[in-house]
């Protein structure tokens, strides 16, 4: 018998079961540890929070894995490529033209839907153009992404300076959300958006696996390459809109969970990698929150720590890629 | 039949494939030869819709490759490029399994598995089938990719330098396999080759490219001649008949 070259370890299925169990433990711990007062208040309050965090984590995880598949690398994330900066620019432009008062009183869900549509349109145009040119050169992509990010941020910064102080207050309010201050008015519409993209991703799963073989092999095998890549870009734009609207920009977190998922699952199948990445995101965000806040008593340090670790991993991977 | 009509490809101002009109006969082995940079890979990429043409058109069995849906073509024509790099970690068997994607869209049937097993067998990959691609030698990896294309089981098989990295035994085995596919299964095999003796021995038809144009074409015996080859490669090439086969000698 030929020897299997994978080191003896857990099968992908076993890994998924363990991750699911860990996620369940994290969620339960988050709900019950340190609860004071009536359960009737604590559970719904914390439940909403868990729900929001889980969705944001899942959205970032899926967006990152998909982005890495279509760019054939494990180093980039939508955040690094300036996606969330673009979303915040779209939001600033809206407040700039509508004025803070009408923005604040305007139906939040409608607002968000409008922003997402704009975001999908702009990012798909931009990144499709970019992939036609630079997809094969990772370092060029990184560079362009950084330039895009700076450009979007400076544009948004410029407009923020031009608007009046009252509008700016509204802006600050909607711009600087965080894992602790998830915007609850958007939970329902975000949930719908995420479920929708979930079904969409599900239908693309076989084609996504083929994309792993690179553009030319995918075309050879009959994948409608342009169409699939465009669809994936739209899905990513929706997911980034959701996560950025709910908690703000997260640059490196996706990098962490996608690479961990690939390390643990050791398969190229998206049907295994995507759930693993989502579960890892939930464990990291909710489990991390429990440990930091409830056990060590730090407030809101989680995002910073995760970004720090993710940033270090990013640099390490760039250096490693360079040596090859 | 593969038919190219006035096909050109330009990069900037340079035409790397220049107005090529060519019929590649069905059911047989056709080899494309020619010096580096002649435009062989570029032509093959356009025929297989991997690269847009600057001008002209290509049909395969009458189907226009730019307008026919990709999945329809994928059941009729397969292509293996000169260089293949995959960043994902995939085993040999999984890679070959992808060859069945055009037929079963990722859900392997019993028939798919038999095609996969046959391809593994043909390319002598039995002992390696559970290895990851990045754990293989260059020639082993090349055979795995060819096996994927064979598993695709298309009437037209296009291979850009399939003998890259192969030792003599496996190179000969591969050419015999192609010969057999053409003669017994009626497939149309198009190969880009640098070893003109392999081309001479195993192909029915030879197309020589040079400077983006078709410099000469014809049945193999008519092409393996000192004057034709010397002109194409701009060097002195002698041809000897050995055991009824034309062998070129160009050393020294
Ligand atoms: N992307 C590109 N941009 C500019 N020029 C290109 C590009 N791709 C190929 N070329 C040029 O087109 C010409 C033909 O290239 P092609 O790869 O078709 O040659 P080939 O006949 O396959 O050569 P080889 O035997 O070395 O594989 C070469 O001169 C090459 O430099
Ligand atoms: Mg070539």
TrEMBL record, chain A:
It is a multi-pass membrane protein. Keywords: Cell membrane, Membrane, Transmembrane, Transmembrane helix, Transport. Its main location: membrane. One of its GO terms (cellular component) is plasma membrane. The chain crosses the membrane at residues 15-35, 50-73, 85-106, 112-131, 138-156, 185-205, 217-240, 246-265, 272-292, 298-319. It is found in: Cell membrane. One of its GO terms (molecular function) is transmembrane transporter activity. Gene3D superfamilies: ABC transporter involved in vitamin B12 uptake, BtuC (1.10.3470.10). Pfam families: FecCD (PF01032). GO terms for biological process: siderophore-iron import into cell. Belongs to the binding-protein-dependent transport system permease family. FecCD subfamily. This is Iron complex transport system permease protein. It comes from Devosia subaequoris.
TrEMBL record, chain B:
Belongs to the ABC transporter superfamily. It comes from Devosia subaequoris. It is found in: Cell membrane. SUPFAM superfamilies: P-loop containing nucleoside triphosphate hydrolases. It comes from the Bacteria. This is Iron complex transport system ATP-binding protein. GO terms for biological process: iron ion transport. InterPro entries: AAA+_ATPase, ABC_transporter-like_ATP-bd, ABC_transporter-like_CS, P-loop_NTPase, Siderophore_ABC-ATPase. Residues 2-236 form the ABC transporter domain. GO terms for molecular function: ATP binding; ATP hydrolysis activity.
């Amino acid at each position: 018998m030929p020897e299997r070259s994978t080191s003896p370890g857990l099968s992908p299925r076993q890994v998924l079961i363990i991750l699911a169990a860990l996620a369940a433990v994290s969620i339960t711990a988050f709900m019950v540890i340190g609860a004071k007062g009536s359960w009737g208040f604590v559970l719904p309050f914390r439940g909403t929070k868990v729900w929001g965090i889980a969705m944001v984590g899942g959205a970032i995880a899926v967006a990152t894995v998909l982005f890495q598949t279509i760019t054939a690398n494990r180093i980039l994330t939508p955040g690094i490529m300036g996606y969330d900066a673009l979303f915040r620019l779209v939001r600033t432009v809206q407040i700039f033209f509508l004025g803070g008062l009408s923005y604040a009183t305007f139906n939040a869900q409608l607002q968000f839907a409008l922003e997402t549509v704009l975001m999908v349109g702009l990012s798909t145009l931009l990144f499709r153009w970019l992939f036609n040119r630079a997809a094969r050169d990772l370092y060029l992509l990184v560079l362009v992404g950084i330039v895009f990010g700076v450009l979007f941020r400076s544009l948004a910064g410029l407009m923020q300076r031009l608007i009046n102080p009252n509008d700016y207050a509204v802006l600050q309010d909607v711009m600087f959300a965080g894992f602790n201050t998830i915007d609850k008015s958007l939970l329902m519409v975000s949930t719908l958006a995420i479920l929708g993209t979930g079904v969409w991703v599900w239908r693309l799963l076989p084609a996504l696996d083929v994309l792993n073989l690179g553009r030319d092999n995918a075309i050879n095998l009959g994948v409608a390459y342009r169409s699939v890549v465009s669809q994936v870009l739209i899905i990513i734009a929706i997911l980034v809109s959701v996560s950025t609207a709910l908690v703000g920009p997260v640059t490196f977190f996706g990098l962490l969970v996608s690479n961990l998922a690939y390390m643990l699952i050791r398969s190229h199948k998206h049907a295994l990698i995507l759930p693993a990445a989502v579960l890892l995101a939930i464990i990291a965000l909710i489990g991390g929150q429990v440990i930091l806040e409830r056990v060590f008593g730090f407030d809101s340090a989680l995002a910073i720590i995760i970004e720090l670790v993710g940033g270090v991993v990013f640099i390490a991977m760039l250096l490693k890629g360079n040596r090859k | 039949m593969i038919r190219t009509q006035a096909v050109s490809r330009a990069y900037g101002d340079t035409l790397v494939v220049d107005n090529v009109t060519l019929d590649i006969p069905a059911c047989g082995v056709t080899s494309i030869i020619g010096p580096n940079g002649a435009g062989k890979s570029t032509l093959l990429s356009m025929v297989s819709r991997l690269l847009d043409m600057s001008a002209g058109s290509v049909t395969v069995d009458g189907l226009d490759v730019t307008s026919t849906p990709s999945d329809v073509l994928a059941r009729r024509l397969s292509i293996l490029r000169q260089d293949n790099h995959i960043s994902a970690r995939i085993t040999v068997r999984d890679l070959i399994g992808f060859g069945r994607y055009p037929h079963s869209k990722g859900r392997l049937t019993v028939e798919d598995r038999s095609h996969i097993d046959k391809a593994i067998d043909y390319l002598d990959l039995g002992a390696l089938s559970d290895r990851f691609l990045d754990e293989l030698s260059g020639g082993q990896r090349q055979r795995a990719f060819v096996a994927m294309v064979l598993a695709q089981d298309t009437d037209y098989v296009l291979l850009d330098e399939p003998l890259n990295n192969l030792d003599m035994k496996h190179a000969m085995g591969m050419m015999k396999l192609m010969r057999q596919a053409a003669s017994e299964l009626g497939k149309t095999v198009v190969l880009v080759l640098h070893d003109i003796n392999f081309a001479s021995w195993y192909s029915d038809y030879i197309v020589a490219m040079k400077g983006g144009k078709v410099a000469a074409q014809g049945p193999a015996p008519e092409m393996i001649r000192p004057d034709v080859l010397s002109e194409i490669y701009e060097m002195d090439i002698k041809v000897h008949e050995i055991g009824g086969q034309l062998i070129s000698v160009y050393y020294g």
